[in-house]
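User:
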Amino acid sequence: MDEYIGLDEHAPQSFARYLKEHLFDKIPFKSIHYLRGNGEDLAVECRRYAALLKQLPPDIVCMGIGENNHIAFNDPPVADFNDPEMVKVVVLDADCRQQQVNDGCFASIAVVPERALTLTISALVQGRHIVCIVPGERKANAVYHTLHSPITEQYPSTILRQHHAVEMFLDRDSSKNIEGVRGMQ
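Assistant: Predicted structure:
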């Protein structure tokens, strides 16, 4: 769904590397298409990946929700529910970049890339099914806003409430601010 711009594809923080190491090297897939954030012409890369999404629309989108309610790297300042693009270059907001430090991906905010490629919200919600996994106490406010705040780009994840087939998987910590969660006390 996204990739940092300018980060070496072999860097431990690369999303492509993570997916390859933890999923695609373990299970045979017919084909795999990565976003490449280290190319010279990012507009060409956005068009390439958008063409793949049009040719091979996703059946299942697996995602999380960021501490600032971002989905993929659609942070509140750049989130657009009606984005005409499928893939775009975004500037990551400070909260998103800090989350990367909080998650242990980077040692400090100074070394977190400032820009990334991301699938737009328009692209993400085209998946027939969305599976959203949101663990951890730092995500509790984001889960609350996802389920209870107005559906607005201020809280990008709220758009999930308009999709016909979303399943959210929460743990005790991420669901602590909501009542009536099945399986929770």
